[in-house]
Amino acid sequence: MTRQEIETKILHILEEEFEIENPGMDDDLREKHEFDSIDALELLGDIEDMLGSTLTREEKKQAMDIRTINQICDYVALMVEKKSL
Amino acid sequence: MERRVVITAASAITPIGHGKESIVDSLLHGKSGVISLREDDLLSGYIDCKVYGTIDYPIDFDFARKYRKTMGPVSYYACQAVKEVIESSGLEQDFLSSGKVGVAFGSTHGSPTVQREIYKNFFSRSEAKFAAIGAVDYLKSMVHTTAVNITKMFEITGRVISSSTACTTSSQSIGFGYESVKFGMQDAMICGGADEYDTTTVAVFDNLLACSTDFNETPHLTPRPFDTRRDGLVVGEGAGAVLVEEYEHARKRGAPILAEIIGFSCCNNGGDLILPSKDGITRTIKLGLENAKIHPDQVDFISAHATATKMGDVIEAQSIGNVYGDKPHVTGLKGYTGHTMGSCGVIETIMTLYMMEKGFIAPTLNLQEVDERCSMIGHTKTLMESDIRIASVQNFAFGGVNTSLFFKKHA
């Protein structure tokens, strides 16, 4: 999965499922779009579907400080790389 | 400190309509909300009872995702009813978030629809699916899900009471809300209850042989409170909410007063968890009258719990007869809606308030021939014009929990 594909999928999920309108790649999702810890857990479920495998507890904890879409994409890219090793 | 307490707004979503106009119309025209049970992929094929008090009309829920994400169907109903109450109340957001307003709201068991999905995952034997059971599923399905989704949506910061006592859930909500305001702990309480479409509840009562089965082909003819041909209860769904407010607060802001709450009682039979108790019900009624500081002769109308079970209706009629004789008009409103479980107390309260306002008493639907064992009370057999000055709403639940509420028309 390329970085562009990840970005497209994440943006699609955020717009369609989380009903975030016109998200900016560096918006603070919590501050600007009321994206909370429940949303983060839901998104991790979607990311697991994207990866086709489950995330470990540590990997999930690692994601909890993420604030922007760029950071989400970096995280997914890292997980893709990790799972393909 | 004891303060006067009034109801200043109300809204209900019921099998016979959503909002005052449609509910009153159904009561005036004897319209039943009981239809055939929907097929599901779990229980409907095994249940003998094939009828349900159903909300079969669309509701325009316009909730943002930030609210929807923690709501199962039961919370949709609850939040919609409360939204309508708040909109019609004219209360300012500052007051709602002042800590002086609380919520007393419950359901029989959270959201069974969501719970069903959780259990499907549990038994899927798939680790991926098991891991998917998360905080959101719990927030949607937990017993106090209605109360806290209400606090979130309307930013209410006062006390939270979430009764979950089956058929007395929402009558307790009103009663405990009343006490919270009466004794100065809150200036207003949003009170009520909700329950969603659920075949599990039907299966429970069906297995106890308490559900109606003789009218599966003619659903509108059941339940039949106090009637010789009654053959059991009909489970239903619904929601209702009332704004319970301190009288002076309501008066100063010019709020319309739908009724004053003058009494509440709650007690337990102290014995069997299923069988109705004449002693328990009689004691509840007497405690309520004592709390309201009124004589039985002053009560004009009684909304009976009257689920249309063989024994329950007889015990209730005998208890009413013992305390009141045959003077007050008695109606079993479940004839219209079926038994809406956790929401029945508030829905029957709201119907009573509507009848109080409009000056009529609806008859017990499907009551054609009174069972002679229930004949000692003043059954409402036909629609009648009547000025209800004081009304009582009584409800009884599995577990031996009994409640009675007393309302006085505001002069």
Plain-language structure description:
The complex is a heterodimer of chains A (85) and B (411). Chain A has five helices and no strands. Chain A has 85 residues and is an all-alpha fold. The mean pLDDT of chain A is 93. In chain B, strand 1 and strand 2 form a beta hairpin. Chain B contains 15 helices and 16 strands. In chain B, helix 5 packs antiparallel against helix 7 and helix 9 packs across helix 15. The chains are: A mainly alpha (85), B alpha/beta (411).
Distance between the termini of chain A: 14 Å
Assembly type of the chains comes to heterodimer
Give the count of helical stretches of chain A. Answer: 5
Shape of chain B: globular
Radius of gyration of chain A: 12 Å
Largest sheet entry of chain B: 12 strands, mixed
Q: In a nutshell, what does this entry contain?
A:
Chain A has 85 residues and is an all-alpha fold. Chain A is 67% helix and 0% strand. The model of chain A has no long low-confidence stretch (mean pLDDT 93).
